[in-house]
Amino acid sequence: KKIIRKGANGVLLKNFETVLHDVFSSTSFTEICQQALHTLSPQYSKLPPFLEESEEKEIVENARTGWDEASSSPPPQNVHCNDDDKHGCSSDTSPQLSPPPWPFDKSTNLPSCGCVRGGGVSTNRKPKKTKTGKDIGGVGDVHNRQRAWTKEMQLANMIQCVLALLPDHVRHHHSACSDEESKPKRKYRIVDFAGGTGHLAVPLALLLPHCEVVCVDLKKWSLDLLHRRVDGVVADGDGNEDVSVLDKNTQNGQHKQPCNSSIVQVSQKVPNLSSYLGSIQSYSDDFDIGISLHACGEASDCVLRKCLEKKASWVVCSCCCGKLRRDALNPYTFQSTGGNEKEVSYPQSKTLASFMNATVDHDDVNARCVESAKRFDEIAKAADYSELGDVRKPRNACRRAAKSVVEWDRLLYCKEYDATDNNMHVVLTRMVPWESSTKNDIIIGWYDPSCNPYRRRGATSDNNNNMSKEDPFSDMPPDDPSSQVDFQIALQHLFGGSTAHEKGKDTVPVVTCDQNDWSSEEVTEIQTQLETFINNDAQDILRFHRGMGSRKRKLIHFVAEKMGLRHWGEGKKDAEKIVVVARRRSG
Asked: Where are the alpha helices (DSSP H) in 41-137?
């Protein structure tokens, strides 16, 4: 039997809102359970501080020096990787967009293969079109201004988090030990899981030539494009692209070949960059930092598990939470191999699972777990949020709260993975600015105190591994109250109430704006129309026009109910549905 609950001001809750309401409710389902609130409310921390300008310059200079020492040269410097005239994508003429962030700014002059707006690779595929009709160019050659800026900001946030996690001797390229025999046997290794064409791996490899950067992906076509970006396009005698470096089955849009073997390929021009063709789970080498930007569905959780297994630091920004549902395709695997095997069960953490199981009225344990999984499906579906224009507005706060719950479940799972290891720390944070992406939640974890991204710059350890300056954990992650606002709005939506005020001699109900669903302007607009209807004695029934959409129709029902009016819907097909409002019958 479907559970129907009402939230703030009598608004009927959606399926996923009902799940959230019950998870955070006391046994009476009428008020918030303080234990659930304390345990399950996502606690955001501020993003690790970005590098100072002097530190950024040091990294760039070390990178250039590193290439000289290796007697190698990266691909030619871009004339400017953000050349507006050349690429048709101005980054600083639009009042809504800031200049490209470091390291994609003109002063850094990153080699074109590492830029979002430079180093494009021609392909036989037709260019994709955006909603505005502008094509987005080839790989590494994004033409749309807004899309290029948001991609740059996403990458810049991830790069800054990675740099913050690097121990000082790695970031500044100082040997951790003077004794040759004690030097590490391998380079410091950063692995970009589900890295695709290397938008994140390539700039990291260019900035950190003394580190090894590996791009892991299931799609051979994507990794071929990575190497073509970095090493150049091979052409045949007629000037056409050499199809031998491509998966021939993808030339005409056919399905990719299954990945039956793991293949490692080292870049010719950027020798510290390599690719690994295979699944996240099959990558077996040790590494120091695992990263993932918008790996689809459960792929992000596979990355977290791999990092926990290797006790490596991580920076994971997930995507496509709706694909976590049990009935959804596993896109990361399906798009590459045609398979759809899921490896992760949700909710992941025992903590969230216990609270969700408690909301299920069933004696059988297995049945309770199945119903709990169904309810998580509702949260995951709602968490697949993509309305960038609402990021800083109350509207749809419940959907963003659902996304926060999914991310908090991931964080709790990490903490539960090895609860006895006190060295493991994990935080939930957000990109800066939030408008970089609707999928802007980042989970950062680390084991080694020297990798604490919030430590004071320059803190180093002595031979006994004691901090010679400030203890890095004296700088704990600061809370980010601004990121908690959405969750508070969501709780008000689920558990709030209504008010009234005096107008002349009559008591007129005030429709308190349910900010999660509608703006105050929208509520005022409908209330004004209904007040005009009430004051018109010659009109007994008010029929709203067709084509208003379910969201607007729900608002009319909501306001009419609050104003004591009769209201009902007519029409079967969505395009024919209307809302009818009438006065209450006297007596």
From this structure: 53-69, 84-87
State mean pLDDT over 293-311.
95
Q: Which amino acid is at 84?
A: D
CB 77 within 8 A of CB 109: yes
> How far is Cα 198 from Cα 172, in angstroms, rounded to an integer?
24
Token pair belonging to 516? 């999660």
In three-state secondary structure terms, 266 is strand
CB-count burial class (<10 Å; 0-12, 13-18, 19+) for 150: buried
3-state SS, one letter per residue, for 153-202: HHHHHHHHHHHHHCCHHHHCCCCCCCCHHHCCCCCEEEEEECCCCCCCHH
Q: What gap in Å lies between CA 296 and CA 135, rounded to an integer?
A: 23
DSSP 111: B
φ, ψ for residue 244 (rounded to 5)?
-70, -20
Instruction: Dump strand ranges (E) for 394-448.
Output: 425-430, 441-446
On the question of pLDDT at 423 being above 70, the answer is yes
List residues bridging with 135 in a β-sheet.
129
For residues 259 and 336, is the Cβ–Cβ distance under 8 A?
yes
* 273 within 8 A of 174, measured Cβ to Cβ: no
pLDDT band for position 332 (cuts 50, 70, 90): low
CA atoms of 150 and 166, how far apart (whole Å): 25
Question: Residue 505 phi/psi, 5° resolution?
Answer: -95, -15
Q: Map tokens 């849009």 to a residue.
A: 253
- Say yes or no to pLDDT of 130 above 60: no
Half-sphere exposure for 153 (CA within 13 Å, toward CB): 21
Quote the CA–CA distance of 346 and 215 in Å, as a whole number: 27
Q: Are 97 and 103 in contact (CB under 8 A)?
A: no
Look at the alpha carbons of 110, 115, 120, 123 in this order and tell me if their dihedral is positive or negative.
Answer: positive
Q: Could you give the CA distance from residue 393 to residue 441 in angstroms, rounded to a whole number?
A: 17
Of 200-204, 343-347, 410-414, which range is least confident?
Answer: 343-347
Helix (H) or strand (E) holding 370: helix 365-383
What pLDDT is recorded for position 101?
93
Location of structure tokens 């000037």: 239
Token pair 């919030």: residue = 454
| C-alpha span between 64 and 107 (Å, rounded) | 14
Per-residue pLDDT at 334: 53
Between CA 344 and CA 305 the distance in angstroms is: 10
Nearest CA-CA partner of 44 in 534, 316, 405: 405
What are the structure tokens assigned to 322, written together?
A: 């709706």
Tens-place pLDDT, residues 184-207: 567 999 999 999 999 999 999 999
Q: Name residue 79's amino acid.
A: V
Question: Is the pLDDT confidence value at 385 over 50?
Answer: yes
Q: Model's pTM, two decimal places?
A: 0.77
Query: For 109, which DSSP code?
Result: T
Question: How is residue 247 written in tokens?
Answer: 């998966």
Specify whether the CB–CB gap between 195 and 201 falls below 8 A: yes
CA-nearest of 112, 116, 119, 110 to 56 is 110
Going by C-alpha positions, the residue among 275, 274, 149, 282 that lies closest to residue 220 is 275
**Section 494-500 average pLDDT:** 53
